[in-house]
Each structure stands twice: as structure tokens, then as C-alpha cells.
């Protein structure tokens, strides 16, 4: 499992490196006096990191509400950990953007509970629509634990970028409500390539990500980024399934 996982991760890094390297160079060359452009570069780099996973079969999406991730737990956990490492790196490489992040506001427990509830409200209907019986999926729970690392680690990076840095930046230039709406629409728009070219599934992905983006943006507006991470991570964890489902005998 680990040897196969390392091979897949090396392929991912090799495939990703040229484009991500150019994004990093672009980011470094852009003056700190241009925070808006630097944020756009970060978002572009993230979209590249995410969408490259599709042709390498690290995940897949289908028009019948199926979102499947590779069944190798080592790969999932590593990708989640690497996402958190990128979050930590942002604190050192872009402190002026890091300061824009509002991690928590109001009652933290209420915010996290609301985030989890929102994630369940988004994810459970889709899970029921999938009609899958997890009892028939061999090795589901060990896979699920690693999937949780990716769901919350990977989406922590996404929420830091969209709800933390982008929405935080916008709140300095417009109302909190408008900043939340822009963040949500930008989030959905950044799934356009995934929806229209990478997978060709089209509007279902855009609709789902718009709903998800609106929920996370308004939760962030009231309770901060941590609550938005709880919402996003919960939704993905609920609807995710392992690739190549193996049913028990």
C-alpha cells in the first residue's frame, strides 16, 4: 500500500511541478503592494493542484452525484497532511495575507456545531441519493479515517484561501455580505474547468459548489474560517466513496 502510494504521489508531484513552479515564481515576482493579484495567483495554484488529481485518477466525479477518491489510505492521508503543510507555509511566505484570516468569531462551539450541521445538510441528501450501503463496501472504515484527513486537511487549505484570505481581503473593500457573496461565486467559478473541461459533467458541479460556497461563506461571515472548514470538510466526507468499490461476500 505504501509503496504503491509513494509511486502515485511521485507521479502527482512530477505532473504538477512545472505548472505549480510557474505559479510560485509568478507569486514571488508580484509585489506585496498588489494583494488582489497575489490572492488570484494563490487561487489559480490551488485549482491546478486540485484538478491535476483528476487525470491521475486520484479522484473522480460522475453525473449521478458520485465523488470517489482513491482507495489507498496512505495517499489520502498524505495529501491531507500536505494541504495542511501548505497552509502553514502561507503563514511564513505571505504574512500580509495571513493577517486577513479570521479564524473564529462569536461562540466557537456554536460555530463548529453549525458548520457540521450545514455540512450534513449538504451531504446527507446526496449520500441518500447515491443509494450506497457502506456495510457492503469492504474496508470502508479504515479508508474513511484517511478520507477524513483529506476532507478536513484539503478543505482547510481551500477554506483558508477562499473564506480566509479572499473573503477577508474583500471585507476591507466592501460590505461583509457582498464579500461573502463574491467569495461564494468565485468558489463556484473556480470549479468551471473541473465541471466543463476536466470532467464535462457541467452544471451539477457548478450548482453544488455554489450552494456549498454560499453556506461556507455565510458561516465564515458569522463564525469564522474554522466553522467554514467544519462545514466543507463534513460535506465532502459524507458524500465521498472509495474508488473501485469492493463488495463483501
From TrEMBL:
The cross-references to InterPro entries, in alphabetical order and at most eight, read:
Rce1/LyrA-like_dom (IPR003675)
Which Gene Ontology molecular function entries are recorded, alphabetically? endopeptidase activity; metallopeptidase activity
> Could you list the residue ranges that cross the membrane?
12-29, 36-53, 73-91, 112-129, 141-164, 176-195, 201-219, 226-246
**RNA-binding is among the record's keywords:** no
The UniProt record lists the CAAX prenyl protease 2/Lysostaphin resistance protein A-like domain at: 142-234
Q: Which UniProt keywords apply?
A: Hydrolase, Membrane, Metalloprotease, Protease, Transmembrane, Transmembrane helix
- Is Protease given among the entry's keywords? yes
Q: Which GO terms describe its biological process?
A: CAAX-box protein maturation; proteolysis
Source domain of life is: Bacteria
> What Pfam families does the database record attribute to this sequence?
Rce1-like
Protein name stated in the entry? CPBP family intramembrane metalloprotease
Source species: Pseudomonas extremaustralis
